[in-house]
Structures are given as structure tokens and as C-alpha cells.
Amino acid sequence: EYGGGMRNSSSSSPTLANCTFTSNSADIGGGMANKDSSSPTLTDCTFTGNSADDDGGGMYNLSNSNPTLTDCTFTSNSAITSGGGMVNNESSSPTLTNCTFATNTSGSDGGGMYNHDSSSPTLTNCTFTSNSTGDGGGGMFNNSSSPTLTNCTFTGNSAYDDGGGMVNYEYSSPTLTDCTFTGNSAADDGGGMLNTNDGNPTLTGCTFTSNSAITSGGGMY
User: Fold this and answer.
1) pTM, 2 dp
2) Percent of the chain clearing pLDDT 70 (strictly above)
3) Cα–Cα distance between 84 and 135 in angstroms, integer?
4) First CA to last CA distance, the chain
5) Are 100 and 70 in contact (CB under 8 A)?
6) What is the C-alpha separation between 42 and 24, in angstroms, rounded?
7) Which of 128, 121, 58, 112 is nearest to 89 (CA)?
8) Among 8, 22, 130, 163, which is least packed, fewest CB within 10 Å?
9) Residue 57: CB partners within 8 Å, gap ≥ 6?
10) Per-residue confidence at 10, pLDDT binned at 50, 70, 90?
């Protein structure tokens, strides 16, 4: 059910370095599942080609689980529902530095990352490239969550519905500083970013270039 490659539960927080998770599968958290206050530390780890029949193709963090990831890569992971690369749920707020999310896919929301229910990760110098979703938020979907992003880049992400780069939904108020959105696309609204249902981000020094939407808001809606 949880964690095809690894499951950490009940305050289990191992330290992993130079590890690779490839072609693992589970209902939730194809590569790794961290639940019930489990907060591992990962450095130079790679998640590639993992899959989830539900959420979190690469990694799923649940119930106050706050892993620390440095120089980690999530590539070509998939989820039938949400969070092709990663899902953070129920007040799970990992810290990510110099991490890459590329070519991950989801059937519903958040091709690269899905944040839900007061989960507010901190991302610094992270890259979201060519992630895609069958619904909203090709790069990232925030649902009642307010992450902090600094010097992050969203490039070439796509959504079949809204928010090619990012969706901020249901009182999500992320803080973005010096972030760049380039060449993202949406089949409906908000090529770079979509803000809806009281989604209210704070943006400082951010750049939107060459994003596109078929309906409205090529850069932001």
C-alpha cells in the first residue's frame, strides 16, 4: 500500500546518501512513503521511473512528516492521481535544496509536486522542468498549502487544464522570491500560474516569460 521502495513510519527518520530508487511501485508513494512524523534526511538521492496507483509517484509525505532533501532528483515518476514527483499531505513540510523535478507525470493534479492540507515545504534553488498533468498544475499544485520558494525555476511544464507552471487553490498563499516561469503551457487558463478560490501568492522579483494558455492568462491568471 505505502512505499514501493521504502516506507518510514511512526517517527522513523533514517539518513540516506547517494541512493537510487528505480522502477518501484505502490498504491501510495511509489519510490518512498514517509508517514506519522517520519522525517528522513536524503542527500544526492535519485528517484526515477517509480509509480503510484494513487498519489506520489516518487515520494509521499503524510501526517507531519518533514524530510530534508539536498541535491536530489525526481525524474520520470508517475501517479495515476496526484503528485507525479512528490505529494506532501496533512501538515508535511519538507525542506528541499538544489533538487530537480523533471518529466514527472500525474493523471490529476501536480505533475511535479502536490501540496495539500497545510503542507508548506521550503524550496531553495529547485528546478521543475517538463513535468505534466492531466488536470491542473503541471509543475506544482498547492491546495490549502503555502510553500516558500526561493530562486526556483519552472520551465516547460504543462497542464491539460489550468496552471502549466503552478496552481494556487483554496486559500493557498505561497511566497515566491526570485523565481522564474518560462515556456510553461495550459490548455485552459494560466500558462505560468493560476490563482483561484482565494489563492493569494506573494511574488517578489519573479519573472514570467513565454508562457502560454489557450483560453486566458498566458503568464498568470
Assistant:
1) 0.98
2) 100
3) 12
4) 37
5) no
6) 18
7) 121
8) 22
9) 30, 31, 50, 51, 77, 78, 79, 83, 84, 85, 104, 105, 106
10) very high
